[in-house]
Design goal:
The protein is an all-alpha fold. The chain is built from six helices and no strands. 76% of the residues lie in helices and 0% in strands. α4 runs antiparallel to α5. It is flat.
Length: 176
């Protein structure tokens, strides 16, 4: 049985040549993301998620009513401009502090600004949490500690499994 490589290579080359054109055509016909879609928290907004202590994931597990979901989305939407402003200010102040030596005359003022930013971040997170808790029923509020504990245990189990797998992969292969 003879294998003919030339025709297969020709087909492969043709497919590779046509792929960029197909991708461009698909991109043109793809629907644009909706502005009303849930905003998501990507990139530097990971700090936003971390600042709120993972409550966004907890809220998904509380079986919120449609009205509660709308109210909570508006809380986050109203807080977003403050968060963006606070993050930008904090980043600029951290960069300024990092560029100064402790012996510089402006170092104490830069340090005070970074400390103020940290306190403002904690206060903003507390304000958002307070507004979210005001939307929840007492039963939903009572479920949050158990959900957070379960999520923490699940994360710890995943991390332990990853560490074990990583440790096994790092072990040198033994020959018998």
């Amino acid at each position: 049985m003879k294998i003919r490589i030339a025709p297969a290579l020709g087909l492969l080359a043709g497919a590779l040549i046509a792929l960029p054109a197909l991708a461009a055509e698909t991109a043109d016909t793809a629907p644009a993301p909706s502005a009303a879609a849930e905003p998501g928290f990507h990139g530097h907004f990971g700090a936003y998620r971390q600042m709120l202590g993972g409550y966004r994931g907890v809220l998904k597990q509380l079986n919120l009513s449609t009205d509660q979901q709308t109210q909570i989305k508006s809380v986050f939407a109203n807080a977003r401009p403050q968060l963006r402003s606070q993050f930008a200010t904090a980043r600029a102040n951290r960069e300024k502090l990092a560029s100064l030596a402790p012996t510089d005359a402006g170092y104490p003022a830069a340090l005070a600004a970074v400390q103020h930013d940290a306190a403002a971040r904690v206060q903003l997170a507390s304000d958002i949490k307070t507004q979210v808790y005001a939307v929840l029923t007492p039963e939903q509020q009572a479920k949050i500690p158990a959900i957070r504990a379960a999520n923490k245990a699940a994360f710890a189990a995943r991390r332990a499994a990853w560490q074990q797998a990583h440790a096994r992969a790092a072990e040198p292969a033994t020959t018998e």
